[in-house]
Structure formats: structure tokens, C-alpha cells
Amino acid sequence: MSKTLEEKKEIVADLKEVLSQSLLALVIDYQGLSVAEISDLRKRMRPTGTICKKAKNTLMRIAVEGDSKWQPMTEFLEGSSVFLLVQEDMKSAIKTYQDFQKATKKTELRGGVFDGQALTEADVKALTELPTKEELMARLAGGIKAIPTKLAVGINAVPTKLAVGIKEVPGSLVRAIKAVSEKENSENSEAA
Fold first, then answer.
1. Torsional sign, CA 145, 148, 151, 155
2. How many helices (H) and strands (E) are present in the chain, helices listed first?
3. Which of 123, 163, 175, 190 has the highest CB neighbour number within 10 Å of its CB?
4. pLDDT, tens digit, for every residue of 19-54?
5. From CA 138, how far away is CA 136, in angstroms rounded?
6. For 82-110, what is the mean pLDDT?
7. Could you give the CA distance from residue 125 to residue 103 in angstroms, rounded to a whole number?
8. CA dihedral 128, 129, 134, 135 (to 10 degrees)
């Protein structure tokens, strides 16, 4: 049963809305998946902040038309497509899809789009090696936290070294006076 023009316009508007909130789009050839397997994919992807959309390539092509951020997706629009529109955690979403792909062995990642760039399957895999937002924030916080600690250690070292130096002055003075007096005594003994 064919969809009416109004229904197609609603689908395109929905796709545009979801894309506007997405960071990454993955295009998957889902041929051979059962309805239950597609439902399983949707269920697995939901916790990663990913929306799994099944739409006709023509409607997705209309949805990305003129949008430089998503336009590169058109090169992947062929055959039967499912779109994974990642809105939160890219790394988890990609790994979750890879786990699903290993389990079913029925899907193929055609490519993806991130920040206006078309991504190959290798590019998508490389995204899983990037640190997450939380990991980056933790590293940054650790670096910022280390600065005052090192500064405090350095500032605390100054009085300690100064105190050691001041404490050493009387001892050095006594040794110097003793050395001078011994030298004078030895010179006086030689003169006598």
C-alpha cells in the first residue's frame, strides 16, 4: 500500500527533526533481517541515545537535500536501508551495532556521516577508539587538578629549602671561623 503525499511529507519532516538532533548517522543495509531482528536492533540501540529509522532512500534523500551536514549520506542510499541516528554516545552506539552485526551476520554497514563528512566503515570503526566526552572531561579535570598540586608542592619547597639554608648558615659560619682560626694558629706556630 503506497503512502499518500501527506504521509510522505510527515516522514520527511520527522527525518529532518531527528537529523537536526543527531551527531552521527550510520547507513545500514538490512536486507535479510526479520521484523523481530529489526525490533531487537532498535531495542539495543535505544540506551545509547540512538534512533533506528527505517525509511525509503528517496525520502531520506529529500530530507538531507540542501543540508550540508547530512548531504554526503546520499552516496550510501541504495538498496534496503536502515538509518542509525546517534544523538548521544557515538562510541557506544557503534559498538552496540557491531555486536548486533556479529550476532546476526545479516547487516552491512555502508557508511556514515559525521559533521558533514562521509565516513567509510574503517572511519566508523576509528571513531570507537576516540575517548568519550566523559573520558576527555576526566583527563582535563585531572590535568587542571595537577597544576595547583604541583604549584603547592613548589611553594612549600621554598620555605623548607630556605629554612634548611638558614639552619646551615650558623654551622657553616662556625666551620669557617674554626678554619680561619686553625689557619692563623698554624701560621703563628710556623712563625715562632
1. negative
2. 6, 5
3. 123
4. 999 999 999 998 888 889 999 999 999 999 999 999
5. 5
6. 91
7. 17
8. 160
